[in-house]
Amino acid sequence: MIYEIRGRHRHKTVVDIYVRNLIKALNLHRLTTKHLVIDFKTSLEEGSVLGLCLGDKNDAEIEIAKTAYGEKLSFFAQMSTIAHEMVHAKQYFRGELGYGSGGTFKWKKRNAGAYKYENQPWEKEAIRRGSELFMECFPFDMI
Fold first, then answer.
1. Is the confidence at residue 100, as pLDDT, over 90?
2. Which of 84, 100, 121, 138 has a 20 to 30 A CA-CA distance from 131?
3. Is the dihedral of CA 116, 63, 94, 134 positive or negative?
4. CATH code of the domain made up of 2-142
5. pLDDT tens readout for residues 42-85
6. Which is nearest to 47 in space by CA: 63, 64, 70, 75?
7. Cβ proximity of 68 and 48 under 8 Å
8. Residue 114: what pLDDT?
9. What is the number of helices (H) and of strands (E) in the chain?
10. Where are the domains of the chain?
């Protein structure tokens, strides 16, 4: 997998190692034609979102907010958000999550536009796996 990290962030080496660990844990390291961009931004969508992932089977872009709800996010909150959004990147690359007609989501090739946010199966997986991946993949010994 080809990836790049954009924007200003703390601990560049730590973030790079962490992203490599996440890629391996999600079994994306063998997908050599896939392209991932992680972009640190001041805030997203009027400051109410911690992270965002958009993508398809070949490309994914993750945006990580440095501030949300008018407050500066801690480094660890940003890193936890990366794990959550990396699960979504995996879902796009594997064809589990995509877009249907009218810009609605498709989950495992079925139209999924009617789900409430808290019931979206792709969000349930990202919440569950994101926490596990953060604890498993973050190089705590380097901080």
1. no
2. 100
3. negative
4. 3.40.390
5. 999 777 889 999 999 999 999 999 999 889 999 999 999 999 99
6. 70
7. yes
8. 83
9. 3, 9
10. 2-142
Report strand pairing: 59-65 vs 35-41. parallel
pLDDT tens for residues 105-132?
999 989 888 888 889 999 999 999 999 9
Can you read off the two tokens belonging to residue 118? Answer: 């808290």
DSSP 114: T
Q: Residue with structure tokens 């070949």? A: 58
Torsion of CA 129, 135, 138, 143, to 10 degrees: 150
Confidence category of residue 11, pLDDT binned at 50, 70, 90: very high
Q: Give, for 86, the enclosing helix (H) or strand (E).
A: helix 75-93
